[in-house]
């Protein structure tokens, strides 16, 4: 294909904003990694450059003295319990809505889906007292339940789409062979919609790992803090403690798992989120 | 008489024949209950009930202790209308909505066109990079940008100094006039990737023949963009705008809470962060619930109005 000089120049021109935006995205993230290896004195002296030595002291401090270690474990528990519970609740409902004929199935679907549009902030006040009554306030398992239910609409929405692509003939053949509907759900539908299940699970996991505001409201004791809260706490304290390096180490610890997931599942994540946006 | 006998007869046949069916009907309902009931019960307890009782709480004066909940009718709503901070929070929310829609849509559309139509080899790389902030935690994004805006260490002020524009350097997040606009950039930074992807998907679905036809008719690239690309991806543009509006009205308080906590001097409070402060910091739970109802009503009204404004018949050539 021939290109005129104008086209080549045009392409170079178009690359400038693309490169600039890439730098704008990458540099702060890159610099967060660099900062986590600097001492406080170095951060003040040379905030935006490379560290003089690779110093892991910030990570040790963050992990042991600033509660990041505990909060990582809390975040892991919340994320794992939350994603598992979401699936347990969403898979059977998605199957029933999509494949079992019953009156009101469409209405039920609309009810779940419309909850995606409702600002939940109104519900958080009563939820606070409900969790208190149930003894689940300031409890990471309580938070995991709240997370799981909050992601139900999105999860059901994505899973019904996936289940609708499974040929009905497979279910019918299994039923003729005498398989119960429970067997069909567990042995036919679940394996065949695995791709969708993996996609929503990764997205829910990232969501739960990153979540901040509900954790802020529903957790109180610093022993129960999730990673987002622990970092926010260090950040608020940093004005007085000047523990900037430690804060950077905390940010890195919070971001690395997301980077790893993104590196492995980049296509699934982007496709899942774009679809969620379009159809929602 | 005939009809009754007829019904009885047909009934008995039905019953004889369908003993098995009754059994399987029962099984079907058991299965449906198994699938639907636990999920729906939890959804009702943790989503539906809180929303409805949030509405209920908004009619009470309540500091959180269970005994002194006092019914005050519309008292909280009267207070809402007389609270001088409330109009500011609404304006701040819509300021963020408008600036985010403009900022994100212009950049996302530009990048989407550049990455799909100008055959750039490294396009997938840009796509991967631009999307990444979408999956970062708002806390991480907020803290990173607090550093970027930091008066003494921050990139913005040192960048201005480097360019010889020191007089424009300021404590961005500590300045009443600049704190709110300063929140727009991180939001745009974090949001572009997703919308760029949605628009890229739409653009790559446009048949090449439209552009070839436009080319033959002598349309410039710019005309092609406005006459071919924009009308054909209008449904997706509309979805993106709606999505930005909804997520901003329902979630802008998160970045506000992380970066400024509503300050300085309430200059960045949005409705949600003000709700948080009233309910969970000052323990005015009834009043907080009334603010929550306001958020719900305003976001529903906004979505309905927007749908009406953006209504433009789908163009098919």
UniProtKB/TrEMBL annotation, chain A:
Record keywords, A-Z: Cell membrane, Membrane, Transmembrane, Transmembrane helix, Transport
Alphabetical list of Gene3D superfamilies matching this protein: MetI-like (1.10.3720.10)
ABC transmembrane type-1 domain: residues covered: 72-265
BP term (GO), one: transmembrane transport
Transmembrane segments: 12-34, 72-97, 109-132, 144-163, 184-206, 243-265
Subcellular location: Cell membrane
Membrane-protein topology: Multi-pass membrane protein
One family name in Pfam for this protein: BPD_transp_1
Name of the featured protein: Carbohydrate ABC transporter permease
Superkingdom in the source lineage: Bacteria
InterPro entries: MetI-like, MetI-like_sf
Family per similarity comment: Belongs to the binding-protein-dependent transport system permease family.
Signal peptide annotation: none
GO cellular component annotations of the record: plasma membrane
